[in-house]
């Protein structure tokens, strides 16, 4: 289902890139923009424990997000996104049934380099790629374990989106990112481990940007 949503969004963006869009004054080299968005953080978790088998599972989240981007040239921009998410973590279908590992918060700052196809037009689509570093914190053990830890890891990200100019400084934004990152889950002092658990979230963002 999540993959189908991503494919559909990609198809819609392809149509946008091929469309006829009206002219307007917009982005230029040296511009700094800030966006405030609401994001849906949908994980695609894949992992298993070494002691009990089963399938790792993490809950999704919807949170506010702030991002900044700087236009290096008229077409090329660097974007940094900042947000924090909260997740329940479980192992389902293990030999011990459902294992409740507890909750953990994640701070996944992501830096991407974008190419904006039509920066001078009202409707300005872009694509991007970059790096992610997922920091986990405030991990609390669930009812099935005494303690749990998560490793912080580097990953990589791809994105596609568009800005739509509302005024000379204000724009509407829609953005999709796919992040590939994993984490080592270590519980009960190493007695229960789910090493190399893929999180691989798809992040849908909708919000507004302001050009300084």
Your description of this structure?
With 212 residues, this protein is mainly β. It has a single domain, classed as Porin. It has one helix and 14 strands; from the N terminus they run αββββββββββββββ. The chain has one helix at residues 2-18, and strands at residues 32-42, 55-58, 61-71, 76-82, 85-94, 97-107, 110-116, 123-141, 148-150, 153-165, 170-180, 182-187, 192-198, 202-211. Strands 1-3-4-7-8-10-11-14 form an eight-stranded antiparallel β-barrel. The longest helix is centred in the N-terminal third of the chain and has 17 residues, at 2-18. The chain starts with a helix and ends with a strand. Mean pLDDT is 89; it is low at 1-9 and 11-25.
Keywords:
212 residues; mainly beta; eight-stranded antiparallel beta barrel; 14 strands; 61% strand
Structural class: mainly beta
Total strand segments: 14
Q: How many domains, as an integer?
A: 1
Helix content: under 10%
Terminal Cα span: 38 Å
CATH topology: Porin
Helix and strand sequence? HEEEEEEEEEEEEEE
Just give the CATH class: Mainly Beta
Percent range for β-strand residues: over 45%
- The helix count comes to 1
What are the segments in which pLDDT stays under 50 over at least 5 consecutive residues? 1-9, 11-25
Q: So what's the overall shape?
A: elongated
Report the C-alpha radius of gyration, rounded.
19 Å
Q: Report the biggest beta sheet as strand number plus sense, adding barrel if it closes.
A: 8 strands, antiparallel, barrel
Strand order of the largest sheet: 1-3-4-7-8-10-11-14
Q: Please, what is the average pLDDT?
A: 89
């Amino acid at each position: 289902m999540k993959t189908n949503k991503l494919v559909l969004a990609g198809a819609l963006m392809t149509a946008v890139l091929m469309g006829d869009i009206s002219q307007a004054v917009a982005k230029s080299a040296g511009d700094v923009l800030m966006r405030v968005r609401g994001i849906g953080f949908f994980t695609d978790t894949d992992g298993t424990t070494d002691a009990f088998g089963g399938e790792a599972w993490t809950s999704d989240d919807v949170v506010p997000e702030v991002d900044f981007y700087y236009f290096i040239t008229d077409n090329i921009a660097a974007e940094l996104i900042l947000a924090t998410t909260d997740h329940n973590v479980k192992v389902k279908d293990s030999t011990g049934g459902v294992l409740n590992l507890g909750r953990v918060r994640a701070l996944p700052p992501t830096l991407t380099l974008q190419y904006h196809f039509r920066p001078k037009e009202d409707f300005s689509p872009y694509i991007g790629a970059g790096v992610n570093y997922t920091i986990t914190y405030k991990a609390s053990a669930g009812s099935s374990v005494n303690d749990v830890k998560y490793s912080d890891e580097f990953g990589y990200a791809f994105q596609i989106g568009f800005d739509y100019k509302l005024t000379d400084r204000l724009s509407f934004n829609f953005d999709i990112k796919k992040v590939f990152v994993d984490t080592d889950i270590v519980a009960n002092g190493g007695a229960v481990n789910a090493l190399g658990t893929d999180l691989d979230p798809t992040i849908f963002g909708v919000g507004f940007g302001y050009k300084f």
